[in-house]
Specification:
This protein is an all-alpha fold. It has nine helices and no strands. The protein has helices at 22-31, 35-43, 54-66, 70-79, 99-105, 109-118, 132-142, 152-161, 171-182. Helix 1 (22-31) runs antiparallel to helix 2, helix 4 (70-79) runs parallel beside helix 6 and helix 5 (99-105) packs antiparallel against helix 6 (109-118). The longest helix is centred in the first third of the chain and has 13 residues, at 54-66. It starts with 21 loop residues before the first helix and ends with a helix.
Length: 183
């Protein structure tokens, strides 16, 4: 593929480039949480690839969760067969995450339940031991109370009701809590 000189690496690829790599375009739209562009690509003949790695699936699902149209986008990806239990692990064990945790961090119980119904495990822990409850506690401590935060207290209650608890022996969760409390 040939890119114009003025194109920055961070710019999205141009649709009029020869030999369109639909997977790359779909990936860009999905990870950016852009359902409108994603839908345009599907309408133009793109297909959701069946060879996405687990990490790529997690990136797409996390992007969908962050979208302004999260419920519709997530539903589309789950119906296409993306694995709701897939894990984002591109930068190491201590930073693993998944769409369930992303939904919890955004206060989206509706998305958490959609993911569970599709097969996500609310009790999932990273190799370092962090889980959704640990992430929520650090988010609660660091919330800027000047802005309308997501309903993290409601998510914390939901997690408690479903047996997902903060693990005080998890070094990663302890580190995040200390950082959140210091800010």
């Amino acid at each position: 593929m040939h890119f114009p000189q003025s194109r920055r690496v961070s710019d999205p690829p141009a649709m009029d480039e020869p030999e369109v790599d639909f997977k790359r375009f779909l990936s860009y739209a999905a990870t950016a949480g852009n359902l409108e562009e994603f839908a345009k690509l599907l309408a133009a003949g793109a297909e959701i690839p069946s060879d996405l790695t687990g990490c790529e699936q997690a990136e797409w699902l996390i992007g969908a969760v962050k979208s302004d149209q999260a419920q519709d986008f997530l539903e589309l990806l789950l119906k296409a067969g993306l694995n709701p239990a897939s894990v984002y692990d591109r930068i190491g064990d201590a930073y693993q995450s998944n769409a369930f945790i992303a939904a919890a961090e955004r206060g989206r119980i509706d998305l958490m339940e959609m993911l569970i119904k599709a097969g996500a495990d609310p009790h999932w822990k990273s190799p370092s031991g962090t889980n959704a409850a640990g992430e929520i506690l650090s988010c609660l401590l660091s919330q800027d109370h000047q802005h309308a935060p997501p309903d993290l207290r409601g998510v914390k209650q939901w997690l408690d009701n479903h047996g997902v608890r903060f693990d005080p022996s998890c070094d990663d969760s302890q580190r995040k809590l200390q950082y959140a409390a210091s800010g």
